[in-house]
Amino acid sequence: MKLGRFIVDSHVHAQRFAAGKAFKEKIGKDTDKASYTDLAGTMALLEPYDNSARLLYDMDIYSVDMCVLLPAFGMTNELNAELVERHPERFVAVCSAVETAQKAGRGEAPWTAEAAAAECDELLSSGKFVGLGEGFPADAGNRSTLGQVERLEQIRPTMEVAQKHGVPVRMHTGVIMGYPLTHHFWPETLNPMWATDLAVEYPDVPIILEHGGLQGWWSERLVEEALCVAAANDNVFLETGLWWSDLYKKALMDPNIGAEKLLWGCDWGASIPFHAQYDSHPPAYAVQVRKQKLVRHQIDVWGWSLKQLWRLDIVQDDLNLILGGNAARLYQLPVPHKRLFRPAYNAPQEPPVADDDDSIAPQCC
Ligand SMILES: [Zn+2]
């Protein structure tokens, strides 16, 4: 049985790297010998290719109606825009300042927050993108520690652009263990509470905390921070695809969070491996294990994630918000009919629909 009416994965990478040849050329190692640190150091230089055939296959298998495509290190906005053009009923894309990062990486122009925001502005003006992400633009070449004040100053120009275009932003939260995510690049990923000031300063900009504080690990420490920001700010949402069942329960029980704040998004395509510890809690969770080799097959994250939701035994209208209703409202995704989702106080704008039925649902037989 399909788990919800309209299922949207709000965090998908449809691009993949052909790493074998590039690894040999750039670091003199083949993929079997390369570590996660090697991968992190070369990712921005690797050539991405279109992985949508595998993605569409998984969408059919798991009845996922639509995906929000994200660029990330080395993955381009252009390829995502092309995929949206080819499959408008299956994909939308968010964008980020990839060109600014690449120019800085090649030494052609220094990275600045203003240049990154200007690139985001131009991309959103094209009408091809529905929001900003993955994460906020950052300087991959920076090697000094960024404090909260400096980093929020870097983020504000991007928030202004999102406000101007009326689109959601995404802040990366959590760590995955294989890649060294640092205070040089995305300090906010280690400090989800930093979203608080942005949420108050830009109350009309929806802020989605990617991974809901848990990119990959067993600890709930950063999830707790993410829950705190979401509970205290109407415009903060939590992405939940890598959460295990109990984490959903915590958010659903909180009267200031609830289903209205949760978006299913699994980082499909990032191919994060799962670690099993069946006698412990959680029995399995996403994480990169540094002493293990890089993963070469396409990890099946949807099967695991949908099982976490299946176990919840909650009201279906709540599940429908988590699985797609909230994403449809925030990203204005086309849905088959009006009134498919319970109204939400924090996302008043309804998604566009194919029909114009404005009748009131019958209240009795
Ligand atoms: Zn991602």
Characterise this structure.
- By secondary structure, the protein is of the alpha/beta class.
- It has one domain: Alpha-Beta Barrel (TIM Barrel).
- The protein has 12 helices and 11 strands.
- It has helices at about 20-25, 35-40, 50-60, 75-85, 100-105, 115-125, 150-165, 195-200, 220-230, 245-255, 300-310, 315-330; strands at about 10, 15, 50, 65-70, 90-95, 170, 205-210, 235-240, 260-265, 275, 285.
- Strand 7 (about 205-210), helix 9 (about 220-230) and strand 8 form a beta-alpha-beta unit.
- Helix 6 packs parallel to helix 7 (about 150-165).
- The site of zinc ion has 7 residues, from loops.
- Zinc ion binds near residues 11, 70, 72 and 267.
